[in-house]
Amino acid sequence: MTEVWGVLAAVVSSALGGTSIGATRFLVNAIDPLAIGSFRFGVGFLLLLPVALVQGHRWPPRQDWPAVAGLGLLFYAAFPILFNASLIFTTAARGALALSTLPLLTMVVGAALGSEPLTARKTAGVLVAISGVSMALLSGLATAPDGAWRGDLLMVGAALCMALYSIWSKPFIRRSGPIPFTTLAMAAGAAVLVILSMLRGSFAPVEAFGPPQWLGALYLGAFGSALTFYLWAFALERTTPTRVAISVTVNPVAASLVGATLLGEPLRWNLGAGIVTVFIGIWIATTQSRRKTALQELRIKL
């Protein structure tokens, strides 16, 4: 049952991440990627800190601080810079598809590092889910701006950062809990982004912000950062990195649904078929065959 809650938390986290793509695409025309990341993770840190203090959970031990800070720089500094910069060059649909390579990257890297075995069932589930994403975004992939491949590569780089974070952070989350770990890691990444933004003068356009821009920035901080990445860490505490990562295939589907709801974009048959295929892939990758389950139960009894 613990793994089920982990997978569900990962799916909700990825769905919220999908809505963040739309908010990022909106803000990228107003401020640069560094400033967007500063708002997203700066606000996220400010919201998580009081929760962490009130809960009174154990913070990461001092010997873990360098590693937690390093993971924070990887996920909350390098990842958002690559993620936000990619959406300058490519479309939201292509960017979402490039990000959906995350479960495949996590599975391969995890097997290479020896942290998680590569199984035929997980591989099949990942490939089915990615094919579902491709199907859902079929209409949006045909129209691409010149040089969109640059954005696609940047987004794959962002996915690799996320894959490494998911694999390497698991033992630290187990030692301190998801909220203290996420708060400390996010603080490290947000501090670097804010300093870089100030040095580059990235906050200058904020003076011209209207209510829509402020709402977009606050949404990214509250839902696209604090809640999204708390749920991600919560999931990593309870299940394997690949099972968490495969949930990211929900991300572009959620982005498409938000576009249809808020922007009046048409819903086509391929979106519905893609949603079904994505969830079939997630089910395949996150469940075990009956034979394997029976063998495990037999070992426990013996």
TrEMBL record:
Record-level GO cellular component terms: membrane
Keyword Transmembrane helix annotated: yes
Membrane topology designation: Multi-pass membrane protein
Protein name per Swiss-Prot or TrEMBL: DMT family transporter
UniProt similarity note: Belongs to the EamA transporter family.
Matches recorded under InterPro entries: AA-Vitamin_Transporters (IPR050638), EamA_dom (IPR000620), EmrE-like (IPR037185)
Domain EamA: 5-136, 150-286
Bilayer-crossing regions: 33-53, 65-89, 95-113, 148-167, 179-199, 214-232, 244-263, 269-286
Pfam families in the record: EamA (PF00892)
Subcellular compartments: Membrane
Keywords, comma-separated and alphabetical: Membrane, Transmembrane, Transmembrane helix
Tree of life domain: Bacteria
SUPFAM superfamilies documented for this protein: Multidrug resistance efflux transporter EmrE (SSF103481)
